[in-house]
Design goal:
Length: about 350
């Protein structure tokens, strides 16, 4: 049985059916981030139900609508009013999964969380409970990237290696901090990502460059001097509290936040390195299928969201693709000059 950190979801822990559902979700192999997001979503929903005197077993669609309205009106931790659209979407998906479980268990007859449906045979698509707002993730331009790299120069060799690995391999946060020395194949500059550490639960291989190779040699030497031969995580903490323990997700996030502040680039996140790498692969002429395989995406539409070519790049591609057509148009337009 997979261990669930119940202290993070106290109301789920106290609700027998919700607890069985989350344990079931973990046991079937969902990624830890998914289990955590679903647990927090249902915990939030249960808290709202308590305030309005409702129970999940009998909640009607209007209770769900009131909960969504409440999320739209709450103070946003980043300023303003209302939780981010992406946060609300994730919570709705988590709560929908919970209600699916109630239906399967025979506790409810129907799921009150409506699903969106694509159009069929020219019909009109059915909108979900909340319209999805698709925002292109931010990636740095060359000026911002230079500032980020200069800020990284002040970081210890471990953190610099984490940055270059995150970029080279287009690694998710979980994938990066879960790396072990045995996952590396330096002779071929390869990183072998184990299935249990990836979001899709599928193993894959990515590569790293010359800078990462040099930093890896320096870090492994330093790691050996400070910790000796240690099994487990590749990246080890040097803090007094967790010395010798693998660097966790939150620690990596704090490292990147510190880099962002020194660089004066608040948009920088742990996922930025992944976005930039996949976009650079597109710039280098990789096909969408090749990029999806490198990223570990099951759906090509997901890959497309990660690739951000600038207006100049798109204009250059368009100009190249239409050069012959443009020449023909110009030749025909030239007859207007001849007529004059």
């Amino acid at each position: 049985m997979i261990t669930v950190r119940w202290e993070r979801y106290p109301l789920v822990d106290q609700h027998p059916v919700a607890r069985r559902w989350l344990q079931f979700t973990a046991n079937i192999g969902r990624a830890w981030n998914t289990v955590d997001a679903y647990g927090r979503a249902v915990d939030d929903h249960l808290a709202f139900c308590l305030t309005v005197g409702a129970t999940p077993e009998a909640a009607r669609p209007d209770v769900l609508a009131a909960w969504i309205g409440d999320m739209h009106q709450r103070p946003n931790p980043n300023g303003g009013v209302g939780l981010a659209n992406s946060t609300i979407q994730v919570r709705i998906v988590g709560v929908r999964s919970f209600y699916d479980f109630l239906v399967e268990e025979g506790i409810r007859e129907r799921n009150p969380v409506r699903r969106g449906q694509s159009s069929r045979r020219g019909g009109r698509a059915k909108q979900g409970l909340v319209r999805r707002v698709e925002k292109a993730p931010w990636i740095p331009n060359e000026h911002a990237w230079d500032r980020i790299l200069r800020a990284c120069e002040a970081e210890p060799v471990r953190n610099r290696l984490m940055v270059t690995f995150a970029y080279d391999g287009a690694l998710r946060r979980e994938e990066l901090v879960s790396l072990e020395p045995g996952d590396l194949e330096p002779a071929w500059s390869l990183i072998h990502l184990r299935a249990e550490t990836t979001k899709s639960r599928r193993a894959r291989e990515v590569s790293f460059g010359a800078t990462s190779a040099q930093l890896l040699v320096a870090y492994l030497r330093q790691r050996g001097e400070r910790f000796g031969r240690v099994d487990g995580g590749l990246f080890l903490s040097e803090s007094r509290r967790n010395r010798g323990e693998p660097v966790g997700r939150s620690s990596w996030s704090k490292i990147v936040t510190g880099i962002a502040k020194r660089a004066g680039v608040p948009q920088l996140s742990t996922h930025t390195f992944r976005h930039l790498r996949l976009t650079d692969l597109a710039r280098a002429g990789w096909s969408i299928d090749e990029i999806a395989q490198y990223a570990g995406h099951r759906d090509l539409s997901t890959t497309l969201k990660y690739i951000h070519l600038s207006g100049r790049e798109l204009a250059a591609k368009l100009h190249k693709a239409t050069r012959s057509l443009h020449a023909d148009r110009e030749r025909r337009l030239a007859t207007l000059v001849e007529a004059w």
